[in-house]
Amino acid sequence: MNGIQIENLTYEPLFYDLNFEVKKGSFISLVGRNGCGKSVLVKILLGLIPAEGKILIDGFPLNQRNKKQIRKKIGVVFENPDSNFVAETPREDMTSFLRNIGFSESRIQKQIASTAEQFGITELLDYSISNLSGGEKQLIALATVTLHKPSVLILDDAFSMMDGVTKEKMIKIVKKMNREEKMTVIQITHDMDDTLYGTEIAVIDENKMILHDQKETVFAQEKVLKKAGLELPFMASLSLKLQFYGLIDSIILDMDKMVNVLWK
User: Fold this and answer.
1) pLDDT tens digit string along 120-152?
2) CA–CA separation, 30 vs 200, rounded Å?
3) Closest Cα partner for 233 from 198, 182, 181?
4) Given 11, 173, 178, 223, which is the most exposed site by the fewest CB atoms within 10 A?
């Protein structure tokens, strides 16, 4: 089965026999208190940090022989976008990236033009990266790692420097890739409001995965989340209160839908 399968992952002192499965085409939010190992897990998946256990990515075991092939399947945007760049301008960085994974020169220019238009960054392609804002750098980084349509997209607090309008636009693009291209999306975030974008939530606490389910099911575990140092998004918290008073039957995360239900 394609996707990501992690079995008995141990990396002391962060993980002990961690088991985690991300099905192909999922959009999952990985959350947990600071220092729980979320970003370390990304580096393990990329083969940057060795760990004990078994990891399969799209059916390929993560090992020295497959490491290079697996990295081509994964696109990662880190919170610090400077970690993603190796060239002077976005165009040069994108060109270098596509050359390294075997794209022809003619295909490279077509792909850059198409992606730049999709992300609305055509006018930024020849700017010096050092002169771009943090939000613009995150935007360029996201566009770059999705140039070749990776099987897995990992967003490690990748929207933290973007303004609200740009963030919403990028979320729409990511959701479209997830929906239409079955791209698996793993969003690592410290902001529980961001978990509303995906369909599943996984929670790491005390060296293990304590919850992993559909977001509505996870939100219903308010006491468990609070023990893990996490606060519910406003709509989830409101839903639980209204459920307690018998005003609604299930968690509702859309305000317009909530209003319609309450006014029936």
Assistant:
1) 999 999 999 999 998 899 999 999 999 989 999
2) 9
3) 198
4) 223
